[in-house]
Design goal:
A three-stranded mixed β-sheet has the order 3-4-5, covered by helices on one side. A two-stranded antiparallel sheet has the order 1-2. It contains five helices and five strands, in the order αββααααβββ. By secondary structure, it is α+β, with helices and mostly antiparallel strands. The chain is 30% helix and 12% strand. The longest helix has 16 residues, at 58-73. Strand 4 and strand 5 (109-113) form a beta hairpin. The radius of gyration is 24 Å and the shape is extended.
Length: 152
């Protein structure tokens, strides 16, 4: 009896966990692709809504065009080529998900792999343009009063 149960367990296919579904404002991210531009803009936060309603120039559309081209050139299960850009103020739209963008931070390009939960954010949020401060001992330019050295 125990042998039969063991055989059934060995023969049963291993079920993997389902992929996590990503939602943006209650709508699945892949369903956002089917929405019209007007419906999509209504879901964004106020600053992004204002930006889209006042109109965009050619630069964001050029970036989207290059991202589409890179996705199309990539194979079915391959990552698309990196698209470099200086547009840190570009709002991530659902069309950009699963692409790789090199975002300029003032010195070089930081690779940002766009994931579904990044929709609605700016590209610049994922490419830090400064070196975070590490508070430690005072440096060479410090004054004598700020350069406290304990006696013992």
């Amino acid at each position: 009896m125990a042998d039969q149960e063991q055989e059934q367990k060995d023969q049963a296919p291993v079920r993997r966990g389902a992929f996590r579904k990503y939602y943006y404002r209650g709508i699945e991210v892949h369903d956002l692709l089917d929405l019209s531009r007007r419906q999509l803009v209504d879901l964004f936060h106020a600053r992004a809504r204002r930006r889209f309603t006042r109109g965009l120039n050619d630069k964001p559309f050029g970036l989207l065009k290059r991202i589409r081209k890179a996705k199309k050139a990539a194979g079915k299960h391959e990552k698309p080529a990196i698209v470099k850009t200086h547009l840190r103020n570009m709002i991530i739209v659902p069309e950009m998900v699963a692409s790789q963008v090199g975002v300029y931070n003032g010195q070089g390009y930081i690779l940002v792999e766009i994931k579904p939960d990044m929709v609605g954010h700016y590209l610049g949020e994922f490419s830090v343009s400064y070196k975070p401060v590490r508070h430690g001992r005072p440096g060479i330019g410090a004054t004598n009063s700020s350069r406290f050295i304990p006696l013992k």
